[in-house]
Design brief:
The chain has helices spanning 3-29, 61-73, 93-115, 137-149, 166-177, 216-226, 228-232, 247-262, 283-295, 308-320, 339-342, 345-352, 372-388, 399-420, 435-453, 464-470, and strands spanning 33-35, 38-41, 44-49, 79-85, 122-129, 155-160, 182-184, 195-196, 202-203, 209-211, 237-242, 270-272, 301-305, 328-332, 360-366, 480-482, 485-487, 500-506, 514-521. By secondary structure, it is of the alpha/beta class. The protein has two domains: 38-214 and 401-498, Response regulator (Rossmann fold), CATH 3.40.50.2300; 217-366 and 502-521, Response regulator (Rossmann fold, 3-Layer(aba) Sandwich). The protein has an eight-stranded mixed β-sheet, sandwiched between helices. Helix 3 links the parallel strand 4 and strand 5 (122-129). The chain starts with a helix and ends in an 18-residue tail after the last strand.
């Protein structure tokens, strides 16, 4: 064979080997995906989608599809994108049901914002899964920032955020540093918030952040105000708290410590350490010792600063150890709103014990409850009739009750409309766990901010900073009538004197226990002022 042919064949062989090597390398370098645009990382489907993907969670398949359907319906109209960011995968059935409740609220809020007042721009909603405990939030935030800069996506707000964790804080900090407005509907940790100063101004650690749920500090103060009479009855209290680093646990423990210290003397605070939010670890053994110590003390009210999974285990242990037929009340924070979904028939039997008498009752500060407004308004009417001997005029009715009651009626009507349209949400929304109500209020609040920021004609859309500036203007005449209460935001974007629904999980005498609304607690010690005009902090 001539030399030139040998050289040519050698070059062809090298080229073929190079092509095969490059092809093989590209296959291995290409990220594993769940679907196009959603990366598979350590078994989780991480990314952003608005076309109905369920992220491998069957419980949210129907409601994700409903959101995609609404996105298609408004695609031809001036619209912006809003992202719903929260973990969307779990091995626990109870957590998957909670995700469904959150997304049901998001869909219903999207529909209300798009249809309620008929204003522009419309909301295109996308789901953003940052992975378990927001572990892959950085990749998702990368995507959201690109969407904020994109003239096609026009991302104008991010909402959701259901866990007060360091990765949650990191995500919110990075988004707000890039002028992307954030409305956190369900994080209660005090430290992921802007600071309201006494003169009415604010120290903005997160410029463009708004929160519509009371902080743990506010919720604890509302519980203290609500339970003031009980404290004077010389009930003995004890604090049980989780030492694991968790913003929710830490801020709740700090708030509850202030309550316990002001009350009658009881046993010293007792700690435990959980391995993670949704892992039990050895907490059962730790709680056996804690419960025995409480039984040997005079305490009958336990303030519990910990997550729902560990609260359930502690309540069952306290009921099991046999404390001489005594009854205990456990008081906890907003995360306890998920407790009812975790309870089994056997759990209820343990809490009530022999004879059907409750051994343990759990009381917590829920962010909302569907019975709050009708119950409180009925009590108000009764009190009014006793002192005035006539019916009140419309102007005399308590605005802080009637407006949220009207908002709840609108939400229930929206649920019925959705059912009538044949749109499936996976289940009938369960408003008792407060999730649907809170997330719905968040989307309605974003919708109002978008509509107020719209100023350059129907085809234009507001800028990111224009939307963020609206948060502190949502008060007084521009207050938001939320199903969870009137939403009026301070200069720091915090909900002013937002009430908590004091709720008790009562095991009853048979069957499943009941979730009972007890009353409203107010962080400021009294209801919000007329028209929700935020008073000066100076006076």
């Amino acid at each position: 064979m001539p030399n030139w042919k040998k050289i040519l064949l050698a070059l062809l062989a090298v080229g073929a080997l190079t092509t095969v090597a490059w092809f093989t390398w590209s296959i291995y370098q290409k990220p594993d995906t769940c679907i196009d645009g959603i990366e598979r990382i350590e078994g989780e489907c991480v990314g952003v989608d608005g076309d109905g993907y369920d992220f491998g969670t069957p419980e949210i398949r129907d409601v994700a599809g409903a959101i995609a359907q609404e996105n298609k319906r408004i695609a031809g109209q001036p619209h912006v994108t809003v992202a719903m960011m929260l973990p969307l995968q779990s091995d626990r059935a109870a957590l998957r049901r909670q995700m469904r409740s959150d997304l049901q609220g998001a869909y219903l809020g999207q529909r209300q914002a798009n249809d309620g007042e008929g204003e522009l721009p419309k909301i295109r909603l996308v789901l953003a899964n940052p992975g378990r405990n927001y572990g892959h939030q950085a990749k998702v935030v990368d995507t959201l920032l690109r969407m904020a800069d994109s003239p096609e996506d026009r991302l104008r707000a991010v909402t959701g955020f259901n866990l007060s964790l360091k990765p949650t804080e990191d995500a919110i900090k990075r988004l707000t540093d890039h002028k992307v407005p954030v409305l956190a509907s369900r994080i209660s940790g005090d430290w992921i918030a802007n600071e309201d100063r006494p003169d009415g101004t604010a120290k903005l650690r997160f410029p463009g952040l708004a929160r519509i749920i009371p902080t743990n500090g506010d919720a604890a103060q509302a519980l203290a105000n609500f339970n003031g009479e009980r404290r004077r009855e010389n009930l003995k209290t004890v604090l049980v708290y989780d030492k694991r680093r968790d913003g929710y646990n830490e801020s709740l423990a700090k708030a509850f410590s202030g309550i316990v210290e002001k009350g009658p003397p009881g046993p010293a605070a007792m700690s435990f350490e959980s391995p993670a939010i949704d892992e039990a670890g050895s907490t059962g053994n730790q709680f056996t010792q804690t419960a025995n110590n409480i039984c040997d003390s005079t305490a009958d009210t336990v303030y519990f600063a910990g997550r729902t999974m560990h609260l359930r285990i502690f309540a069952l242990k306290l009921a099991q150890v046999g404390c001489q037929d005594r009854h205990y009340t456990i008081v906890s924070g907003s995360d306890a709103a998920s407790l009812q979904q975790d309870m089994t028939e056997k759990d209820w039997e343990q809490l009530r014990g022999e004879g059907g008498r409750a051994k343990v009752t759990v009381q917590y500060a829920a962010p909302a409850h569907p019975d709050a407004w009708s119950t409180e308004l009925a009590a108000w009417h009764k009190k009014w009739a006793a002192s005035h001997h006539r019916k009140p005029t419309r102007a005399e009715l308590p605005q802080y009750l009637t407006e949220p009651m009207a908002a709840l009626k609108t939400l229930n009507k929206r649920i019925e409309t959705t059912r009538g349209e044949g749109i499936r949400l996976g289940s009938t929304p369960n408003l008792e766990d407060s999730r649907t109500m809170l997330v719905y209020d968040g989307l309605v609040t974003i919708g109002k901010a978008l509509h107020q920021a719209q100023k350059d004609g129907a085809e234009a859309v507001p800028g990111r900073e224009d939307v963020g500036r609206q948060w502190s203007l949502l008060q007084s005449r521009h207050r938001v009538q939320g199903t969870s209460g009137l939403i009026c935001l301070t200069s720091g974007g915090n909900a002013y004197d937002k009430p908590v629904a004091v709720v008790e999980l009562d095991p009853g005498r048979e069957g499943h226990g009941r979730l009972k609304f007890v009353g409203l607690g107010w962080p400021a010690g009294r209801e919000q002022p007329k028209n929700c005009v935020i008073p000066s902090r100076t006076f």
